[in-house]
């Protein structure tokens, strides 16, 4: 324990220490833990620690490690929030959260409610009405298979001020009796609602399956079950793997170019710590490039996924995948040669179960290098001499499975000081029943009888900036035409940059048609070449933000999703833009409060929040499993260095890269095959 | 010759046939060829040929091969345009182009004028005024180096109706006497103008070097020469290559997954032809995926680069890199293990020199496969079973060097029917003198005394569509909120898709905040699942279009650059959006005429034109050579197939991919090193 860095992920011992102390505190009450994880130290303490760690000047200060816990006592509201000093083993605080506060879902809690719902007599009675035993499915190789019902618990969402206990809306599906059958292909038309903690039945919702909210029917025997559109090779009928794909092997015979020392990574001038946690998946800390500070902390901090299907109860489909569930909690255990290629370093995540016991989720983060084409190149056309460098990248990847959907989060570092934040959405569309195959304009028919509704993904990335020092400012730069017919614009081709400062906490509007870019600058550090402050640029794609009405709960709960770029003054514990507790929340109590225009954000300790948005009208190519949809933004030096910081990257050569001519390879592999016979 | 496909690139014999016939035609006149290349067959003939080639139904029709040539006679205007039937060896037509038409620059023509300008007594006299022999530069390892002057010929651009003969504006720079010195680091302040054909001196321009157009000085002895910011490792002082980058080897022991048969490529369900040409670099033809037709022809067809610096003569800096020079003419010869990695197939380009002799530019196109992360993935959280596929890509790459700048054009195909069109801009910024180090808002000081002006790159990609058949329509789809408080939108979360048809030739406005996407659909082919027409989507980033005033020549000459997406009805020989002849053009005679709203474009033979735009305000990190700036758009199936067409891609496994744990690799490479000692 003595060797832990202040940012290192929570340990098993720390989880046990915290949950034991809290159990003791509550005596006879049975505690159900909703979430337990490490809490960052106060920033001022951390900064002191980091500066001494980096520059010396005394012994490393002692910074106690803290763990937070959300829990219920005796499976009842209210939700408690406690903070424990696990270094010195005492409870710092344990408080009841405000009335109606609901904690995040726990993986074990979800598994338990899923089973409870399926086993419940009312649900069983509803299932019995389908007369499933009259049907079987004959698979060409697997033979006769029965049908079975799958229960998919969903966060309940919000549509009233009255739902103040944790609830679950279960969407029910039909599958064949094989573990990998794609139940999303046959959505059923009833949807039981249960209490999450007590497992009490609340009511049965019947789902609309026509073009509007009115087409609702009672549960009747199924006369005919449509063919399930399967994705698993074991189930796809007459599955024939595509031919011709030859191995492409990525090897690093001399080892990788990165070093790992606990949570500390160094690679090609970069230094940072990568630390897993249950809510965000991971965060990076203390980011430096070529010895200069860039960010104190950076991570994905929230994603909301509102659906545009207004038919009740689908109107309540608005997941907060981080706040309601957690990307660490739902992280995939990544496998060698599958989720990333090359030489791979894996990191783990530790969570607490509902009882307070530590659970290991192995290999939730993979880190590796990749080649991504050319970094820079110039050919002197007079001599035909070229300077060519390859773009090597370092990738941190985590993948969360939140029920049907998969989110792949990549932070990609290049050799020239830039970070690409890339998100890929894959997995399976959330589907709605559509018996009559109605063509609608809010969803796409992705299989007979199945609609996938339009929806949005709005991800918030938080960058606690420390660009060349503690005090930063935020500007946005537009490129605009010069006024016409001026003496110095006689030919009307002139354009110039207009710089605007963000003076107060708030948001910046998107403006792609003036080429607007956001920059974090340091007014105390002037670039000796440009004679202007150094900076880092956020280059974001112009996108549609949250589409729901400002009157809707969707927006009240995710005000952050109304704007692309936010600036706040650093505030302790201000990490999550839709607030600390999002599950069944009534309103966003994050950015809407912190970015209210009160604080001055000029030349101070600033935090920027970048909303990456994807409006997703599904297409048939995305069913039964969707090819990754990409979105990304760039964080790049903008006159931060005095010249290209990658000039020292060694030139590309085939001695190093060992590529092969097609003709050679074809001949070689042909003779190879022959000799193998 | 009998084996040539109708789209195969021009051959040496064809060039000689064409230029010889034209020389014969003009008898005693000396011909200077400005450009010679293959001309596509008439589309109706080509379609007949392709359909019989693919589906049978008779012998392949005979389609004669044609070559076009632009040339001057006796190095004088006018410019001629001829078309030659090289199969039957006769001149189809030879015509004088309209008055003032200037042909594209020839690489040999540029080399000749560059030498002529430098050797010219007036220019030599101007150089002498600098008193360069008073200065030397001491390089730590190369010792004393003299200074020398470099001449960079530029297309003249346009600012009046009077400049009707081919002209060259030369920008002059200082370098040290070493072939790889970065002359862009010291721009000189005089700029001679010459006639391109006759090599006659026209006038000497003196360049403004202050904040506006007024700061012009005569050429004086240089009192002090600032340090050149070099990029070449031989010249960078005390160059130390960055340490720690280990080899990352991409190998395909069983050979590549693609087949090459002449110009025909097949890979993972894709079929198309890749054919080099001097103007576009390359075009792809007859594009099919999984047996279904997508495009007749697709290519980059133009790029204009207007500068926003309004100070004369910089206001005339507006390159048309394809029309004025040609991306095939300026293509790099790509080298194994440098410009792309793995198993590489190269293709060549053939051009004609000014005399009409064929010139081989070897290896101008490289084709290879790459891994780019995950294609799709789903984990069944109940069983922990995952379906994981890697995204293998097939890349066609060409790289053009147009003086200072490099453009990397990638067409990237995935296994699910999508094409990514990716452009990377690299190379060296075009620089302007700035003696007084004036901070301006139209340029960035990138080195002491050097400004790099803001500018734009506006690339036009043309897709001659054949989506599931000959007749296509174009729509744009917006996602918009439902009206509030309707009975079916009680909770105000609803949104829906609004489809609009492009009925007449013209452009579509950008609309990122309604998530607008452009789609080419086939109204005669209804997707049996969605019950709507099949389509392919163009997903383009919202960007600033050309910034100059509509009054300016910049816009008159590149009207296409005012809009992102254009739709026309197919017209024979309508290939280039700014017109066939762009060099010193007075107006765009391309899209502005073809997309004038006259033609109906619904359910007909349509062509779409996508303008990819980058406004580029330079930063210091982009000097002395810039790390690649990316831009891209996606062309993806949008309910074209009935389900994910990549379901048959084999699942990822480490048997196939042979990745390695970090710990293993570090230990292995450590012991490896030991045993090597």
Largest sheet of chain A: 10 strands, antiparallel
Largest interface: A-B, 194 and 195 residues
Uncertain regions of chain A: pLDDT < 50 for 5+ in a row?
672-677
What is the fold-level CATH name, i.e. the topology of the largest domain in chain A?
Beta-galactosidase, Chain A, domain 5
- Let me know the number of strands of chain A: 34
What oligomeric state do these chains adopt? homodimer
Number of helices of chain A: 9
The CATH superfamily name of the largest domain in chain A is Copper amine oxidase, catalytic domain
**CATH class descriptor name of the largest domain in chain A:** Mainly Beta
Question: Percentage of helical residues of chain A?
Answer: 10-25%
Radius of gyration of chain A: 27 Å
Structural class of chain A: mainly beta
Could you explain the architecture of this structure?
Residues 672-677 of chain A have low confidence and may be disordered. The first copy, chain A, is 12% helix and 41% strand. In chain A, strand 18 (358-380) and strand 19 form a beta hairpin. Chain A folds into three domains: 12-96, Nuclear Transport Factor 2, Chain: A; 107-206, Roll (Nuclear Transport Factor 2, Chain: A), CATH 3.10.450.40; 259-428 and 455-468 and 516-616 and 625-637, Beta-galactosidase, Chain A, domain 5 (Distorted Sandwich), CATH 2.70.98.20. In chain A, 57% of the residues are buried. Chain A is mainly β. Chain A contains nine helices and 34 strands. In chain A, strands 11, 12, 13, 14, 15, 16, 25, 28, 31 and 32 form a ten-stranded antiparallel beta sheet that branches. The first copy, chain A, has a ten-stranded antiparallel beta sheet with strand order 17-18-19-20-21-33-30-29-26-27. Chain A is globular and about 80 Å long. Chains A and B meet through strand 10, strand 17, strand 18, strand 19 and strand 20 of A and strand 10, strand 17, strand 18, strand 19 and strand 20 of B. Chains A, B: GO terms for molecular function: copper ion binding; primary methylamine oxidase activity; quinone binding. Chains A, B: Belongs to the copper/topaquinone oxidase family. Chains A, B: This is Amine oxidase. Chains A, B: InterPro entries: Cu_amine_oxidase, Cu_amine_oxidase_C, Cu_amine_oxidase_C_sf, Cu_amine_oxidase_N-reg.
